Amino acid sequence: MFVKHLSVFAALATALGLSAFTAQAQAPHASGDEAAVKAVLRQYQQAVQKLDTTGTHRLFTADSEVFESGGVEGTYRHYAAHHLAPELREFSAFTFSDYQAKVRLDGPYAFATETYTYTIGLKKDPKTPIVRKGVATSVLRKNAAGQWQIVSTHTSARTPRPKKQS
Q: Which InterPro entries does the entry link to (predicted)?
C-alpha cells in the first residue's frame, strides 16, 4: 500500500515538476506576447496621434467590435470610415499623456486595460483644447500567423475632476 502511494506521489511530483518547468519555459514567451500586445495598442495610439488611420485595420480582426462611450460603433473598418477618420480631420492635434497599459494573457487571448489623459486641439478653435481622462478595455486574439489583433475594444472618457487643494 505504501509503495502504491509512493508511486502516486512520485507521479504527482513529476507532473508538478514538469508543470513548473513548462511554466518557466513559457514565462519568456508570455512576456514577449505581452510586449507584442502592448505594441499593437501603441501602434493604434500612434496612428490616432498622427491623425491618420491608414493601415490601422490590420490591427483589428475583420469581425471586430468597437464600443465608444455607450455607443455601438460596429466593426473597426466601419468605425474608422464613419466616425474616427472624419473626426480626426477636424482636429489639429491629439496627444496622449499619463498612459498606462495592463495586459493579462490567457492562451491565444489577451485582455488589456489602458488608462490615459488625452488632449485634442480643434482646427475651428485652437485656443480651447479638449482634455479628457480616458480608459479603454480591449480583447486581443493571436491569429494563425502569430500576430495579435484587437477583437473588441471599448473606450470611455470624462472631463478630469479638479485637483483637491491641500
A: DUF4440, NTF2-like_dom_sf
Q: Would you say residue 9 lies in a domain?
A: yes
What is the rounded CA–CA span in Å between residue 24 and residue 12?
A: 18
CA dist., res. 140 & res. 112, Å (int): 8
Percent of the chain residues past pLDDT 90, beyond the cut? 77
Rounded to whole angstroms, how far apart are CA atoms 166 and 59?
44
pLDDT in tens, 92-114: 999 999 999 999 999 999 999 99
> Domain residues for 147?
2-158
According to DSSP, the residues that pair with 155 across neighbouring strands are: 68, 136
Using an 8 Å Cβ cutoff, are 65 and 155 in contact?
A: no
The amino acid sitting at 70 is G
- Condensed to tens digits (0 to 9), the pLDDT of residues 51-68 reads 999 999 999 999 999 999
Hey, what long-range contacts does 52-58 have (CB within 8 A, 24 or more apart)?
52/88, 53/80, 53/84, 53/85, 53/88, 56/80, 58/149
Instruction: Count the domains in the chain.
Output: 1
Report if residue 163 sits inside a domain: no
Count the Cβ atoms, other than its own, within 10 Å of residue 109: 14
For residue 35, being part of any structural domain is answered with yes
